[in-house]
Amino acid sequence: MAAAVPAVCRIRAAAAAAATLLLGCCGAALTSSIQDQAEQFFRSGHTNNWAVLVCTSRFWFNYRHVANTLSVYRSVKRLGIPDSHIVLMLADDMACNPRNPKPATVFSHKNMELNVYGDDVEVDYRSYEVTVENFLRVLTGRIPPSTPRSKRLLSDDRSNILIYMTGHGGNGFLKFQDSEEITNVELADAFEQMWQKRRYNELLFIIDTCQGASMYERFYSPNIMALASSQVGEDSLSHQPDLGIGVHLMDRYTFYVLEFLEEIHPASQTNMNDLFQVCPKSLCVSTPGHRTDLFQRDPQNVLITDFFGSVRKVEITTETISLDHDLAGFASKLPKDELATEPLKYAEQLPVAQIIHQKPKQKDWHPPGGFILGLWALIIMVFFKTYGIKHMKHIF
Amino acid sequence: AASAQVQLTVPVAVVFAPGSMPEDLPRPLPFRDVQEMEISVNLRTSITARYEMVYRSTTAQEEAALDAASAREADAALHLLQDTLSGSLTVYVVPEISSLLPQGISIYVGKHRSALVRARGGLAALRTRLQQLTQVMSFTASSIAAALSDRLPDGQLGPDARRHLKSSLGYEITFSLLNPDPKSHAVDWDIEDAVNRYVQPVLDKLSLVANFSVDSQILYYAVLGVTPRFDKESSSFLLSTHSLPHVINPVEARLGSSAASLYPVLNFLLYVPERSHSPLYIQDKDGAPVSTNAFHSPRWGGIMVYNVEAPASPQASLPLHVDVDMVRVMEVFLAQLRLLFGLSREELPAEFLLESPGNEGLADWELDRLLWAHTVENIATVSTTLTSLAQLLDKIGNIVIKDDVASEVYRAVASAQSAMAKLTTGHLHLAFQASKEAVTSSERAFFDPSLLHLLYFPDDQKFAIYIPLFLPMAVPILLSLAKIVREARQHKKEPTKMD
């Protein structure tokens, strides 16, 4: 710890030396260009798509946030992004909640029309794992090495990422599971860290909370487009309560966004300007906002499927190589060391022998607390009240 | 800071066979010459390409090798005589009348690191041809720009730049056989043998660049996302070009690539169409069926459609047993692997003849091309990673850098400097190894889990928490302190008054 400050100074010097090695950061030097319509294959420079869908609420009365997130998850899967490229963070306490009259379902329409929980939902961060720290770790990639691949955002410089967040928010912050919050400054810094490491090509950030526009006010990294369900000072309202389930099923903004997305199919050419028009004030009561000043391309040219779907760029293979197929058994030039193959067996699941033969564990003694303490205090007080304080010396 | 210069040195030996020397040589052989070329990357940085040419005449052994019947044999014989370091090139200039090179070909590029050039015209013409040749065999401005594509403005690059796989420490290759109709086709592919015979030699050659691991799987009832169109004239089913992008997605979810390692995964799929959709051909833009019947997607992998011949008698019992011709399949897959890495042979002028690398999959000079591009890319990555780490430290002043993170940073800087030094002296292999170490260390330092900026509180949050706590407590304390000071002062005054 004591070496922290000099280490920091030395690292700065070392990194400054490294910076003079080669190129300066070109983040701000990106030119804006309208893509040529004929260059259809490479209109957007991305080669893969990722989605990070976060529901930041828990508890039964926040059913609608889980339904929001799951509906977006379904749309994104339908349009082609596979589970391996989706990081879904949910509190996931709706489907098996004791208050759910239809267990193992999460509905998104009134009269229980659409079960968005389905049977192929893959939740990557569930329940108490949905924390600000985990969310930032997913975004920046500073994940402990033991994290499984499904919990990582393995995007590269040619990935378009869709980030959808919903929950309860305020002016400049978003509440995570009633115990912590993330501020817009932290979010903007996280995106900047992503940009520094070129972890995205373009980013679409959608937020459906109260005062959602405050969350994208502080972004400063390039190639980010943001949409929010309400402006600062406005609340985002929920859509429809279901009398059978007893809670509101969805939020208005996401409901209309989903109606819009239902008409999109993987080959559709609808662009972002149409998404900006979704949910006008007459339907949504709040005023949805968007931010495109950091985005390089014109929203007119950005397809919805650039972020919500996963349309790959393909090329026809015209070259082949010729192989000599009479070659009998190729002797590899590299020595392949024979690993000693030991018989495989299961790791010890339970130390059964230990459990059966163990002695009762010595519990550490704690002073009594709570009720017992109160009871004894009462007894001692009554004793001394009755018999007088002079008996104290018998105790001490 | 002053603009940084990276110098890429290519040692080239130009060997003149007897009868091929041009008349206007400036000095008698052997002599040295250096050509430098600036590749401008952006406004502040440029890369210097330095070709250190050594001109000499052939030794007796080389002359004997050049007496071979064909260019290929000459190349093989010459290879035994050279000790070719990674990154270096040897060009043999043969007389104009020499029969080694076929008619109309003036440059022959061998499998290793040598080439044969037909002497024609004077020194200037030779120099131009040499420059073209050395660029093909090492790096060009566009290949360097492609390697640095994520740090350059978009307008500068062609569509080529975004295609190639990024430099990584390892790659995972997955071969999948998709059989949507197991009731009609019982497909058998001897993938293990094919991998050992055809894929492993290529991967052994590429093992210099990265670690490769191979696995394979068979998926049943996996369908393509699109319904092919029936074409009456050819009585076959066709997949048009614009429906190809939608083919991959429904399959990708089944491929299980998420269970694999953290390295980039390259998927090669072999699709055997259903009996009701056989034969299936892929159409290119002009409507003609593609000869390879395959397509690939940058940074993802490739798909090949393998048509099963209709059985001779319509009464043949189902399922038909299909033995996949792995040679044909591997020819396409390995070609796609080359294309994914960016090794394409298509854009050369007609007077070039390139020797096919055979079962090794790629020539030595193509491997060198990869190494040049990856080394430059690695150095650029290290530089920007460490710069952004330094910027993070500037922003959050009280971040704590652990000792192991600090040592990783030092190691990264040292390795990067060593890589640049080796590039300047022309040792490509060592430069690449050093750049790989530099990237590993810098990534480890940057992505260390302890650097989460959430853990470091900005000052205004600290004030916001502690002031409401301590200010009310501090008020009586301060007031009593003030009282004590007042009393002490009064007490000091009192004794004088008493007197």
UniProtKB/TrEMBL annotation, chain A:
Oligomer status and interactors = Heteropentamer. Part of the GPI-anchor transamidase complex, consisting of PIGK, PIGT, PIGS, PIGU and GAA1. Interacts with GPAA1. Interacts with PIGT; this interaction, via a disulfide link, stabilizes the expression of GAA1 and PIGK and links them to PIGS.
This protein's pathway:
Glycolipid biosynthesis; glycosylphosphatidylinositol-anchor biosynthesis
Q: Which family does it belong to?
A: Belongs to the peptidase C13 family.
Q: Does the keyword field hold Membrane?
A: yes
Q: Does the keyword Zinc apply?
A: no
What biological-process GO terms show up in the record?
Answer: attachment of GPI anchor to protein; GPI anchor biosynthetic process; proteolysis
Name under which the protein is recorded: GPI-anchor transamidase
Q: Which GO terms describe its cellular component?
A: GPI-anchor transamidase complex
What residues make up the catalytic site? Answer: 168, 210 (nucleophile)
Q: Name one Pfam family in it.
A: Peptidase_C13
GO MF annotation, one: GPI-anchor transamidase activity
Species classification: Eukaryota, Metazoa, Chordata, Craniata, Vertebrata
Give the highest taxon in the source lineage.
Answer: Eukaryota
TrEMBL record, chain B:
Q: Does the keyword Transmembrane apply?
A: yes
Q: In which pathway does it act?
A: Glycolipid biosynthesis; glycosylphosphatidylinositol-anchor biosynthesis
Q: Which GO terms describe its biological process?
A: attachment of GPI anchor to protein; GPI anchor biosynthetic process
Look up and give the membrane topology term: Multi-pass membrane protein
Q: Where does the UniProt annotation locate this protein?
A: Endoplasmic reticulum membrane
Determine the domain of life of the protein's source: Eukaryota
| Record InterPro entries | PtdIno-glycan_biosynth_class_S (IPR019540)
Membrane spanning segments where?
463-485
Report one GO cellular component: GPI-anchor transamidase complex
Coarse class of the primary localization is endoplasmic reticulum
Q: Which keywords does this chain's UniProt record carry?
A: Endoplasmic reticulum, Glycoprotein, GPI-anchor biosynthesis, Membrane, Transmembrane, Transmembrane helix
- Which PANTHER family does the record associate with it? GPI TRANSAMIDASE COMPONENT PIG-S
Per the similarity annotation, which family is this?
Belongs to the PIGS family.
Output this protein's name: PIGS transamidase
